[in-house]
Amino acid sequence: LQSRLPSVGTTIFTVMSALATEKGAVNLGQGFPDFDCDPSLVDAVTAAMKNGLNQYPPMAGIPALREAIAAKIASIYDHRYDAGTEITITAGATQALLTAILCTVHPGDEVLIIEPVYDSYVPAIELAGGKPVFVQMEVGPNGYSIPWDKVNAAVTPRTRLLMINSPHNPTGSVLRESDMRALSDIVHNTNIAIVSDEVYEHMVYDGARHESVCRYPDLAARSFVVSSFGKTYHVTGWKIGYVAAPAHLSAEFRKVHQFNVFTVNTPVQHGIARYMADPAPYLDLPAFYQRKRDLFRDGLKTSRFTLLPSDGTYFQCVDYSAISDMPEVDFAKWLTSEIGVAAIPVSAFYNRPKDSCIVRFCFAKKDETLRIALEKLARV
Ligand code: PMP
Ligand code: GLN
């Protein structure tokens, strides 16, 4: 068989989690919480199961969940999506991203992506026959930022899609209003669609607001907004998320979606719809994770790691050049095996290997886990 994805191997997340397990290391690599979700969320899902809500739901998702999502978006981002035609429930953000790409990109189309980039984007573009065009973020004293002039220079008549991710995995950077204005200027008068990966929308710190593309009417009109309940409700294994997009884009999305998964887990949809009636869990999330971020950053201040900013997500990147000049993959493996803390090399988020002595830690962990990890990291 001739591979459709010849350069794809096992993801770095799987590799580092397996190594962490093998070595008995604290796993700050793969991004997932080591604490459980709210028991009342589990109760809401099991109640749906016990009430016989166990057969296929409507293709786009149950109306109650789509309405809850539309209401949430309207209340926090001041943009009203039509629950019937503009919101589709997906099997996590990963399926949403793949489906959005498959329904937009034709063979030979160019897709502009910003590096470092989440690992599912490029294979998804390649499966669609598209050509990824890379623009690298720049790193300065204030952390990572997107050089919009370079993004603009990379636009060609073949550019079909532009993908952004804020808050950003792995850098923890967050797009600001000025970024959104720059993005609007670039796509103005083009037919470029946008995929906006906002899975960490409720993890923005220090009082800043999340700049969803749907706050900006000219961007909302051309965007697929992707989010994931896995991140927001501490249930990464449930694999449920959604896409919000104008009706003409959602219609194309659903054409692919219905032959990709057709529908998504009924009782989980009912459980989340009920749970969403209370906004507290997502409104409280920034404070919840900001405290963990600060605990982790404070603990690292006396170490030999240099902290990069973490303005959003549950990731903290560190520069280890004062400790070692090992390539990032080797350093992450060494840290896991010899020090007992797993991390993710940021080089894994680049198309061509790029070594900057930066690794990513996930701080979505119990305080106790973070303290154990900090003790070990202080010895490096
Ligand atoms: N996009 C980004 C930026 C992510 O970090 C993740 C989760 N690691 C995903 C998409 C995928 O989310 P899900 O688990 O809901 O498929
Ligand atoms: N999104 C998670 C991370 O960045 C991992 C998801 C996965 O294992 N594919 O760590």
From TrEMBL:
**Which cellular components does GO assign to this protein?**
cytoplasm
Molecular function in Gene Ontology: kynurenine-oxoglutarate transaminase activity; pyridoxal phosphate binding
Provide this UniProt record's keywords sorted from A to Z. Aminotransferase, Pyridoxal phosphate, Transferase
Q: Which SUPFAM superfamilies match?
A: PLP-dependent transferases
Q: Which family does it belong to?
A: Belongs to the class-I pyridoxal-phosphate-dependent aminotransferase family.
Which NCBIfam families does the entry link to?
PRK09082.1 (NF006569), PRK12414.1 (NF009079)
Q: What name has this protein been given in UniProt?
A: Pyridoxal phosphate-dependent aminotransferase
- Source organism (scientific name): Noviherbaspirillum saxi
